[in-house]
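Board notes (copied after class):
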Amino acid sequence: MAQNVTNVAQTEEVTSTRRVIAASSVGTLIEWYDFYIFGSLAKIISEQFFPKDNPTAALLATLATFAAGFVVRPFGALFFGRLGDLIGRKYTFLVTLVIMGGSTFAIGLVPGFKTIGFAAPAIVFVLRLLQGLALGGEYGGAATYVAEHSPHDKRGFWTSWIQTTATFGLFISLGVILIVRQTLGLEVFNDWGWRIPFILSVFLVAISVYIRMKMSESPLFAKLKKEGKTSANPLAESFQKKDNLKMVLLALLGATAGQGVVWYTGQFYALSFLQNACNVEFVQSNIIISIALIIGTPFFILFGSLSDKIGRKYIMMAGMIIAVVAYRPIYTMMYQEANLKTKQEVVEKTVVKTKAEVKGADSLLTSVTTKEFADGTKYKETVKKKFPVDPEKKAAMPKDKLKPETKKEVTLSQNSFNKMVGFVLIQVIFVTMVYGPIAAFLVELFPTRIRYTSMSLPYHIGNGVFGGLVPLISTRLVEFTRPAPGAPPADPLFGLWYPIIIAGVSFVIGMLYISNKTNNVDEE
């Protein structure tokens, strides 16, 4: 009889934990979806909200706006972390969800550069900052909330489900974008259809808010509050006490900074590299990333669960050092796989089409060259030239308006496509190794009374600043190797030095100073 009661109690506990994880994960997933739509549509956003006369500068400005959302995440961590430790986990990440959803919805409504000029990128920049602040308060709350509902010996397993939400959020953002793009067609999507994924966010957020309203407060925090043991000043306790500040710095420099750059290199920089360095066609590049994410996502759970048995440290450190050693070879193979110089061209499959039309005061000449290669790879190059209808005006025109606009697209053969999926999948495995155990690792470093504040800051500096700047810094580093505007970069892999150095430093610090102790009790 007693055994049956015990079994029923254990079953109810597991069911309750699953309910908590499901409710937390849905909201966190939607926040990541909202946050990553911007990055997934970086190229189109650069054309919509910035001047088109310098595409490279527009893309860099867009990546800078994208990065701004990451840079402010630590401030959101401080603000909302303090609220979470003062008033509770549940209501704090309800607020962050509403801010995130509202900002994403608003981005979908902002008029483009053609309509309101530089006010467009300014408004988008502000909304992006709000997104970053909201995400700064979301993750720490969700991870803390799930961890405080989990048994001590299964924290890695249960919190790893929260870790999957970032990747699923990216996957869903890519999926929604592809579905809308294929449904509306390329021209309509580039004109206004890109706004739909942003606008859809308001419906997803409404569902998530409803689910989270049904959730109860974390039992550990509720117990502290009932006993009057909550922190009166979480910020002071977290960062003015020497021992706790030491753990915050160790978590940042020995774990989250390296984890952050590996995460963003393996997913966002991989997508950017496919599209910009390899010129892989938009839909195909997104499908490559999506397939790799779907196959790789279960490894978050695997490594999270494994960390309960052998500790968090060695799994995370292994992911970092393998990434450091493997990045250059992997990206070299990716670049070579898309390099047309290595492929045999089918001469009779080369087609050149030219079209002339008058647009306003200019005449537009479009030339489209398509080629097919022996392995099935296809290449499309579109060159657009603008010049005045009246030849006498040509001398008065600024020179930059006479430059042709060139767009190159490579559609990979099936064999090359499969290889690219494999290259990205390997990077996603690195991501799961460093990211799967990180929530449990951070939760166990800090006491319950200041946990939300203490763990949120190193996480969001590591991921938001060190990791979030990967696309911008790496792209900028590659630009430094470009001998002249319009010329190919001397080293398209030069941008990898940023994540390699950061992950290498974190590995050294983590190996020297981080403990592999697991399953800390919640001592005060």
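Comment from the instructor: Confidence is low (pLDDT under 50) at residues 1-10, 394-400. The chain has 21 helices and four strands.
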